Structure formats: structure tokens, C-alpha cells
Amino acid sequence: EINNEAKSQFEKYLDDQKTYVDRARSLAIHSLLARIGVAADDAIATFAARTRNGANVLYLLRKDVIETEQELERFRKKQGLERPARHTGSRTLKFGILAIILLIESIANGLFLGQGSTFGPLGGVSQAMVIAFINVAIGVFTGWKILPWIVHRNWLAKLFACSGFLVYVAVAVGFNIGVAHYRTAMAGDPFEAARVTLQTLQAHPFDLGDVQSWLLFAVGVIFSAIATIDAWMMDDPYPGYGRATREHQ
Hints:
By secondary structure, the protein is mainly alpha-helical. The chain is built from 8 helices and no strands. The N and C termini lie far apart (91 Å).
């Protein structure tokens, strides 16, 4: 009985072994290993090619970094600058400030001009938008293109920048005085306001007539000054230094 059981179990063992062999053969281990080898070789070749391409890209980038750093150092040496460029914050915020003061000045001026306008406050606001845009644009141009040259090491550039700033002061004051005279003239005859404004400007430029005209003048000058300072702070105060630093970064 023991021998029969042993024989039966041995036969079962052989059947199981045959089953395992058949299963292993159906898995195609050798062909799978071959495919794995080919895939590994392809991966190595692809990685090597990408590494070469990446090295070429890094070489060009490194070359650009070195050249821009040399350019920045030449700029700093030529201009006698030892400090790093100043980071003035987000330009979006600066432009947002300009948009806000443009809106506020348009509304404030419109309230003053609307009292004498034949179209009421709405007509005053439409006129004030044009006036405010011109007023802010004058300040932005001065702060962006003129003020930075005041700190330039070239004395001729300093002289022109100072002269330009004095011209800005005269233009800003004159423009806002003209607007104040226009507001006073609008309170009389709106259709003759332009002609009356020219006459009063020539005869009595600083006689604005009432407190509201003086307030209109003050609002225009203050917002023009804010626009000038805001535009001046758009970048490093030394001309070209912020641009050179951004290119290097």
C-alpha cells in the first residue's frame, strides 16, 4: 500500500513538473529577456543622445551667461557702479497706481468741470479724462525718460536732465493753471470757454477766481507729481542699469 501510494504521488509529482514546464515555456522567458535587452540598449542610446543634446544646450546657455555677465561688469565699470541693481517691485503694481490716479483725477476733475459744462457731470468727466490723461502722461514721460539721467555720471546728461525737469515743472504748472482757468471760464459761457481761458491766462495767469479752481489746480499738480515719482520708480534709478541686470538674470 505504501509502495502504491509512493508511486501514485511520484506520478502526480511528474505531472505537476510537466505542468510547470509547460507554463514556463508559454511565458517565453527567453524572448522576453531578448526584448528587455533590446529595450535597455535603445534606452541607453536615447539617453546618451539626449545627454549630448543637453550638453550642447547647456554649453550655449553657459556661454550666454558668461557674455551677459561680462557685459554687465563692463557696464558697471564704465559707469562707476559698485552697488547691485535695485529691485523696485512689480511693474504691474506701478501701472496699477497710474491707472488708479488717472481714474481718480478724471472723476475729481469731472466734478469740477461738470458744474459749468452744458452736458453736466458726464460731460465734465469726458473732458476730464482727456485732461487727466495728458497730465499723467507728462508726469510719466518725465519720470521714465528724464529723471533717471539726473544721477548719470555724465555731467552733460545731468545738465540736460535738470533742464528737462525744470521744463516739466513749468509745463505741469502751466497746464494745470490753464485747466483751472478753463474751469472758471466754463462756469460763465461754455461756448466761449476756450477763448476766455486764453485771455485770462495772458492777462492774469495766477488769478484763478475761486477756491474750487485752486483745488482743481492742486489736484492736477499733485497727481502729476505722483505719476512722475511712480514712473521714476519703475526701474533702477541709474539709466540702463536695470535693463542690463534683467538681461543678465
